[in-house]
Design brief:
heterodimer, A: alpha/beta, Rossmann fold, 6-stranded mixed β-sheet, 4-stranded antiparallel β-sheet, 10 strands, globular, B: alpha+beta, Alpha-Beta Plaits, 77% helix
Chain lengths: 227, 328
């Protein structure tokens, strides 16, 4: 599903690369946790996957799409196949829960009828039924993250990238979000999660990839993490 | 055969579906643009106000140009060249000269005032002034008959001058006591008004252009600020797969809205102002009525032109801003 072959990304010739010859293969339906301290290169790696950044060298293939041959005009189509969730949710404050989720479908040119039948199902999946008409500021942090996840998965992406989704949440809400990601993974979506939370990493018992100074230092099938 | 037919109809169906989606996206982009116009109300009001002032200046320049041109035209019509004929010239003889004069390309019209008419006009004009009336009665010299010639361009009298100097028919009847004359001082005044009008037109065009540039800059800046304000939102839109038109389109729509609202406001203020000052202007002998008639008759066209100017300023400045600051 995701293939990186000796991928390097340097922002500046004089400093060490942010990502240094990283090679990695992630199977379809896998649940992978990416750990590492700040500045280890996690964010850069995710930006390379979402094509916000181009690698300095190396090959990236995601969902059968080779980034070397990807035209700029096709980037939006690629991104519709990858769902992204952020630490700070990035919801539209003036839009309701329903509208925030529907937005992802609107920009893909879906009709109102399609939107009306799809969105409630996703709202139910993330457990926000009854809160469709509320605005983000009326929701708790955990609920906001659920809206963000709903928006990311509403188009049934093959891959879900969750960049520190629990970074702003208390432990109880954090676990709610992790359980939700596991549920989405069970339905067939490849999940790539980055986190600082050792408790989550250790209890999940999933594949853990550790990045340090832009390099992969460990890749364990049922890994653990010490902060 | 059937398979081929089915294939063709599915292609047509797919094409129609794409077309419908395109239309749907267009309406959505317009809606997002309108939403952000409402959401950023203070920025919107400022940008619309500047655009309104610009369009008002464009409107005023157009109206002022029209009014001044009409006024100068009216004044020019009042300038005539007087050719004095001998008192004893008969109407028939005068008519044959008029026929000759009218053949000249520079002559617009000729009126004939016979000696008796000229005398009674002077008497009528001075009916309250006994001294003048006494003087006319006592005068031994006779009034000449007059040909009042109005020419097309007061700056070009050479053809008429040539006629006066060389026409053989006129030579027999032209008065030897009075030289042909232009309405001397009036002509000079009108020429200087004409020059002032040309100057005013140039100032209007320059002021209009400067304000168009200023308002384009302000809208450019407004859009730039909007882009910075919505940096996160734009980032999110990009990452959930919005294409260029979905991200840039709403900014374009927003600035077109500035232009359209400003056009309506500027036209309304312009018309109101014009009607309001028309009375005052008319009392100063400024010909404002024909301009009012013109703008009233073509009000719809004027509104549309103003909207087009507003939209073009909006589109140009927002395209520039999005291309400079909205890297996708």
């Amino acid at each position: 599903m995701i293939l990186l072959d000796r991928v390097t990304k340097s922002y500046n010739k004089d400093t060490n690369p942010a990502v240094d010859r990283v090679s990695l293969f992630i199977e379809p339906r896998e649940f992978v946790i990416l750990v590492g301290t700040s500045g280890a290169g996690k964010s850069t790696l995710l930006k390379l996957l979402t094509r916000e950044e181009k690698p300095t060298s190396g090959k990236i293939v995601v969902g059968g799409i080779d980034y070397d041959t990807l035209k700029d005009s096709h980037i939006p189509m690629l991104r519709r196949k990858i769902g992204v969730v952020f630490q700070d949710f990035k919801l539209l404050p003036q839009r309701t829960v329903f509208e925030n989720i529907a937005f992802a479908l609107e920009i893909a040119g879906m009709t109102r009828r399609e939107i009306k039948s799809t969105v409630p199902k996703v709202i139910e999946l993330v457990g926000l039924t009854g809160k469709e008409k509320q605005f983000p500021h009326q929701l708790s942090g955990g609920e906001r993250q659920r809206v963000a996840i709903a928006r990311a998965v509403v188009r049934q992406p093959k891959i879900l990238i969750a960049d520190e989704p629990t970074g702003n949440l208390d432990p109880r809400h954090s676990w709610d979000i992790i359980r939700l990601l596991e549920k989405i993974n069970k339905y067939g979506t490849t999940v790539l999660l980055t986190t600082h939370n050792a408790d989550i990493v250790n209890k999940l018992k999933r594949r853990v990839i550790t990045l340090e100074h832009g390099k992969i230092t460990s890749d364990q099938a049922q890994g653990s993490y010490r902060q | 055969m059937m398979a081929k037919k089915k294939n063709v109809s599915s292609k047509v169906f797919a094409k129609q579906k794409n077309h419908r989606r395109g239309l749907l996206s267009f309406f959505r982009i317009c809606r997002y643009g309108f939403d952000s116009f409402i959401r950023n109300s203070w920025l919107s009001v400022a940008a619309t106000a500047v655009m309104t002032i610009t369009l008002l200046i464009v409107f005023t320049t157009f109206v002022a140009q029209n009014v001044l041109t009409n006024t100068v035209g009216d004044l020019r019509d009042k300038v005539d060249m007087s050719i004095y004929l001998k008192t004893e010239t008969t109407n028939e003889e005068a008519n044959s000269i008029i026929t000759e004069l009218k053949k000249l390309s520079s002559v617009r019209s000729v009126t004939y005032v016979s000696a008796d008419e000229a005398r009674s006009q002077i008497v009528e004009a001075n009916k309250d002034d006994n001294d003048v009336l006494e003087a006319i009665k006592a005068a031994t010299n006779k009034n000449p008959a007059t040909l009042r010639v109005i020419i097309n361009d007061i700056n070009d009298t050479s053809q008429l001058q040539d006629f006066v100097d060389n026409n053989t028919l006129l030579k027999d009847y032209i008065s030897s006591d009075y030289e042909p004359s232009f309405a001397g001082e009036r002509r000079n005044t009108i020429q200087s008004i004409g020059r002032a009008v040309n100057f005013a037109q140039q100032v209007g065009i320059i002021a209009g252009s400067v304000f168009v540039a200023i308002s384009a800059l302000i809208i450019f800046n407004t859009i730039r600020m909007a882009i910075f304000n919505r940096k996160e939102e734009i980032q999110m839109m990009k990452l959930i797969g919005a294409n260029q038109s979905f991200i840039r389109g709403p900014f374009l729509v927003e600035s077109i809205i500035y232009g359209l609202i400003a056009a309506l406001a500027a036209t309304a203020i312009g018309f109101f102002g014009l009607y309001k000052v028309s009375g005052t202007l008319a009392s100063y002998q400024i010909s404002v009525q024909s301009t009012i008639d013109l703008v009233t008759q073509y009000s719809v066209v004027i509104v549309l032109i103003m909207m087009a100017i507003g939209a073009v300023i909006g589109i140009a400045s927002s395209l520039l801003a999005t291309h400079k600051y909205l890297k996708l």
